[in-house]
Amino acid sequence: MHLAVLGINHKTACVEVRERVALTDDGCGALVRALTRRPDVSGAVAVSTCNRTEVYVSGPALPLRDVTLEGLCSTTTVCRPDVEGNIYYKEDGEAVAHLFAVASSLDSMVLGEAQILHQLKEAYRVAEEAGATGATLNKLLRRSFEVGKRVRTETRIGENSLSIASVSVDLAHNVFGSLENLAVLVIGAGEMAELVVTHLQGHGLSRIHVANRTFERALELAGRFGGEAVRYEAVEDHLVGTDIVISSTAASEPIIRRADMERVMRRRKNKPVFLIDIAVPRDIDPAVNRVYNTYLYDIDDLQDVVASNLDERQREAMEARRIVDEEVRIFQEWLGSLVVVPTLVSFRDWATGVKDQELEKFLGRMPDLTEDERAKVVALAHSIVNKLIHPATTRIKDLAGEDEGQRYAEALGVLFGLNGGPAGNETPPSGGEAEKGSESSPD
Amino acid sequence: MQQLEQILFGVTVFAYLAAALLATFGLAYRRKEADRVGVWALAAGFVAQTGSLVLRWIAGGRVPLAGMHETLAFLSWSTVLLFLIADRRYKVKAAGLILVPGAFFMAAIAALLYEGPRPLQADLQSHWLTVHASVSLLGYAAFALAFASGFFYVVQEDLLKKKYTQVRALIRALIVVLGTGTGTYVGYLIADPTLFEDATGHRVYAYSQSDWTIIGIGAGVGLVVSLALGLIAARGAARPSFANRLPSLSLLDRLSFHSVVFGVALLSVGIVTGAIWARAVWGSWWEWDPKQTWALAAWLFYSGYLGVRGLANWRGRHAALLAIAGLFLILFTFLGINFFVPGKHDFN
Lengths: 443, 348
What we know:
The complex is a heterodimer.
Chain A: E1 2-9, H1 15-21, H2 25-36, E2 43-48, E3 52-59, H3 65-75, H4 80-83, E4 88-91, H5 92-103, H6 115-129, H7 134-154, H8 164-176, E5 183-188, H9 191-202, E6 207-211, H10 215-225, E7 228-230, H11 235-240, E8 244-248, H12 258-268, E9 273-277, E10 294-298, H13 299-365, H14 371-398, H15 403-416, H16 430-436
Parallel strand pairs in A: 5-6, 5-8, 6-7, 8-9, 9-10
Antiparallel strand pairs in A: 1-3, 1-4, 2-3
Chain B: H1 2-29, H2 32-60, H3 67-90, H4 96-112, H5 127-161, H6 168-191, E1 194-197, E2 203-206, H7 209-237, H8 240-245, H9 249-281, H10 290-311, H11 317-340
């Protein structure tokens, strides 16, 4: 059984192309059903997210490129020449490696994001409901979920925030610990400011005050956050009772200066305050950061944190790739054994058959033998046959993960006139499980 | 029974070492399993040490709180006790980075100075000793906890304020001070200067040339090791992800404050019971014994901390720096005194 993947992602195509091959759940279902109706495809799973559309297929022979691409084109409105330059197609080991990398979020636009694993699981569910997965893809997809999980638990690829809003939340946690019962003051308006507030709210922040040059606008924003509008002129008074300040006004001059903050700090009795200045030009004088127990972050400071975090994720990605490589090797061994095991089984059946036949003939001609002598003859025949087939069998089993092993199995079939038959008896990759047992973490 | 006591104490030392290494590894590489196993190792060591303390108590027929081995052992036990409580209540694994190695060092030095339990001079036997010594040492451990949280407060604040770039020097300096101090002290213990009485009847230490050499080597080794450690730690720590692994400023500040409150309360009881005991054995409440004097100085210092915190709103960095400075006063009271002037507190 062979595997292949054909797809388009954010690295190979812009959104104009991706959106044309994007599929709904129903579309994925229809595609995999259509593909598996064809004789050269035994299983199919289609994944479609905003950054990728990929079809995983299994079949008795390669290549599976044309059949898969045709299927994709007939399910979507796109025609082949339009996407020919954007698609990638990988077979067997490379296809497995690709899926494992996708599941580990190594192939994602935002390195280490957790969403892709859910999306893969969803795609798998759809294909399973359509009855299209087939035994090999079943195994492959399930293994990929394990790999994705393993990478997330054994590396820190999913840690350290990568957006301004979540970095702001991290910093607030660093200063205050729990954000519950803290008060935030939003000065000005803007998309980024709203995003930061929403993130903070998601972490339990409760009291929100909004100030704006025009009070009506403040009222409107306050309504949206479920907060309270305050007069712009009274900002300094409100700073006294606020823990987190988010400033994003269009003012051309700083609206909070060091001397202001020092006054406020005295009135706050040195209670810490965290200021986020996402305005350009900046709203808060950088010298404010030097005021006791005052923590000021401007947009560049926040971006530096994001860059440092991304850097760490990339370092973790190296470890993740090592895990993926290891898992690919284990899976390939198992995949290879699928090819050789049926041949080996029929080889053994053939040898046992010959032995039984000859024994029957021989014992029929020698009716005078005692029970004991008969048993000895049977044992002798048994031992000779086993010794004869043993070296070939173990050698091929050892090489099962490589192409060579599969070629020997084929040769064995030709030489002894065996018909191995399709890979029916799939067993889990037990060797692989045992090998990684010590490394996998409990949760 | 003494053998069992020694075995348990040996287990303690190794468990503390394992816990210290696991805590460092857990924080450096963010492995939660390492943290978890580390806390279990620490708890196991704590149980073993409790066992050895009890055995020693039974064997000696008195509370094991006299002599260097016993006081250091008890101090390491108290430190671990307070850390385990603080970790449960405040979730401050990071504080363990200082306290657990600290407890390990104390236990290890105590093991080097091991001596079997022996009865105390009859006049020192008193229930006041039990209360006085145990409460004072527990108070020292509370100040060590205040130090550890103050230390990480300063690190965390510098990370946040200086935007992760200019903190290396600070972290290096803190580690070097700790390392050199430990090295010097170990050197002093190994040198073991002779004690004699001078013409006026005062007991003083005589440091020979070789004693100074040994102390110098100890300090040198501590300096080199901590410089190397400081280089590695400062590089690893100067980034936002490390700040995320440290407790929040608010929590560190609170823990430091609570520890000082607790420590001052214990030290007050320790000083008062000490005075009562002194009255019983020396015949006067207050002797201006060097240890008494320095304990009083430490008490005044920490009371001052509480004062400025309450009156001048010295929360945060200033308070953390005081808690850091305070521990040096405590270390001097507990260990440094013996370095220079012998007093009535060495029961040799």
